[in-house]
Amino acid sequence: MLNIAFGQSKYYVDNLSENVKRGNRQKLRRGEWPNKAPFGYINDSKTKSILIDHKSAPIIQKAFKMFLEEKYSFTNIRNFFTKNHLLTAKDNLIHTDKVKRILCDPFYYGVMKFCGEYYEGKHEPLISKRLFDKVQEIVKIKSRKRKDNLHDYPYRGFIKCGECGCFITAEKRTKYYKRTKRKAEYYYHHCTKKKGACSQGYIRREKLEKQLKVILKKVSLSPFSAKMFRQWAEKDASEEKLKYKDQINNHARQLEETNTKLERLLEAYLDKIITCEEYKNKKNVLVLRKVSLTQELKVLEEKGNNWLEPFNEFVNNALKCGKIVAAKNNCHDLEIMAKTVGSNFFLKDRRLSAGGFSARFNALFEQPVSKSASLPSLPLPLLLGDMDSNHDN
Ligand SMILES: [Zn+2]
Fold this sequence. Notes:
InterPro entries: DNA_bind_recomb_sf, DNA_bind_recombinase_dom, SSR_resolvase, Zn_ribbon_recom_dom. 54% of the residues lie in helices and 14% in strands. The protein is of the alpha+beta class and 393 residues long. Among the domains are: 31-152, Putative Large Serine Recombinase, Chain B, Domain 2 (Hect, E3 ligase catalytic domain fold); 159-210, no CATH class; 245-303. The strands form 4 sheets. A 3-stranded mixed β-sheet has the order 5-9-10. It has a 3-stranded antiparallel β-sheet with strand order 6-7-8. A hairpin with a 2-residue loop joins strand 3 and strand 4. The two termini are 33 Å apart. 20% of the residues are buried. Mean pLDDT is 82; it is low at 1-14 and 369-393. Bound molecules: zinc ion. Zinc ion binds at residues 161, 163-164, 166, 191, 193, 198, 200.
């Protein structure tokens, strides 16, 4: 079953991107930045290094110092960039999210962050680590404020109107009850109608949320089924490893032979049985062979399991999804999960629908109940449906 539904994931890492990544890592270890230079710097094609751009660097330095004075927001900094003609490569205004990324980029004090890892850079820093750290504290405070505001208005900007295609927005209404002198807040969601006439009406947040939970529940896994999925995956992975065992042993043996040959060659040279020229020629052949054998061996050893990690991540997400659906008052988490697993959410006539799910979640969503017979000894409703008891508590 895993092979049919998730077989694709086994080809998750393709060779090309792996080679590019390897090249990048080598550059990073040498302290070189493998990408386009960040704002404030330029790529020097002659020396293949990163140099300070004397036009934009002072603007970046000023932005860090400005942000220390708390009165400046991300938008203020963006406007400051615009005023000083600091634009994107395509001459567009820099987005406020990008402003935040600039202010959080350790590159400016000399550390390169790449794919979640840190490397010491060879380039000249624009600011001190101390200034950077202080700015990070302010970024944290300012981001928290922004998040709190968004928290009041969840489910905004990711669902589209099924009639006109505009985004669904949220609105808060306060109702005052005269008799009990009580104030209550309600949230409504509706089409922004920015493109013109649209006949769609309002929907209460609770009703929208209920429908979103029904959709997300279909792509959830219960703790029990997550455990089963993990066990099957582990079994699959170890079987696959067995398949490559012969090849791995074969490569390891050849590698050992090559090492022995290299040692003997050196002895022959030292004993003056062969000339320096002969030694060099033969050695080069053997060293190249050794390098390619080592690399092939590494690929083989990883081969059996390169799909396991993304698969486990999927299982964890599906499990988390189930927990979030079962919990109460967590619209923020629900929204994040919906964005993680699904796409193309539409609302029409107060009915919410999802256009698609990311790869493996689609397999869960489309799993028809009749296929349950093919699952090892467990009917699918039991596997996927035992969130009910939690939810109704
Ligand atoms: Zn509309």
